[in-house]
Amino acid sequence: xxxxxxxxxxxxxxxxxxxxxxxxxxxxxxxxxxxxxxxxxxxxxxxxxxxxxxxxxxxxxxxxxxxxxxxxxxxxxxxxxxxxxxxxxxxxxxxxxxxxxxxxxxxxxxxxxxxxxxxxxxxxxxxxxxxxxxxxxxxxxxxxxxxxxxxxxxxxxxxxxxxxxxxxxxxxxxxxxxxxxxxxxxxxxxxxxxxxxxxxxxxxxxxxxxxxxxxxxxxxxxxxxxxxxxxxxxxxxxxxxxxxxxxxxxxxxxxxxxxxxxxxxxxxxxxxxxxxxxxxxxxxxxxxxxxxxxxxxxxxxxxxxxxxxxxxxxxxxxxxxxxxxxxxxxxxxxxxxxxxxxxxxxxxxxxxxxxxxxxxxxxxxxxxxxxxxxxxxxxxxxxxxxxx
Length: 388
What we know:
alpha/beta, Rossmann fold, Arc Repressor Mutant, subunit A, 2 domains, six-stranded mixed sheet, five-stranded parallel sheet, 17 helices, 14 strands, globular
């Protein structure tokens, strides 16, 4: 079994709080991780498991083991009972570990019943640093990080992704409250694949679907809550230049994106005109996934000025501003770094990083040209610092 970077963060949160919740997309490994941390397990999507928990409640509450409640949002009645059990003995930490596939639904229950009693940890599909073989790492961009989706079993891609999306569209999203017909959701997913890495224009998408921009934005909320899509907000700073204010939209898992766009293999991917946007989204999600796995608080944005100067990822963390530019090239040029410096100067960025596929990383902690694996290793080392 692969070690997950988020495991230590979950353990730390349980040490500090009576309960913790692992949220993330279906099939990303939440249950596998949770069962390494707790031996008492209930799947609350199953009626029989709800009955078992109800009948064994007193024993469960008294248990000294971590109690794992999977798909907790599917049985809202459990949240008031959890609150009562926690409040009856507030000195005990590390009692309950909740798992959920839909953060908005789970967050509603948390805010109403468990505020101040529970810590949240997001688990992503597999990250680059979690893979143990070079072959798996090379496949990660193409297939995405879902353990069963091809990164560990190459023949599963892209059939697994198609089946995964079909299940989400036909069952899960409607159950979670999305009112769109499956055919409309499928069209929306194809459109979102076409605008991956672009600024969000709800009116344009809505016109194509025959829907209002309010409705399209509401649908996007569900897709974002289901961990399919990421909206990267624009960075607002006091600049003399005008800046674009609409968010960018990215598919969070590159394998799902490539499946929707009918890309079956690496050679086909590299021949696409949008391959740079795919690589950009992949790098951004890997970076943000690593920060979340290590429990590092951060703000993530992009910057684009009216005269087309851009920073792909602006990070605010630990009192610093990081300007990160992503290039799909094995030979980044001095001009690429100078352009990044120019835009980074506009926002007073403390650190500037150019991420490409270079095999020769160069620079220092403040200004570097590097590859993704090296940058993620540096993030890991930074997270391990005593003062971090």
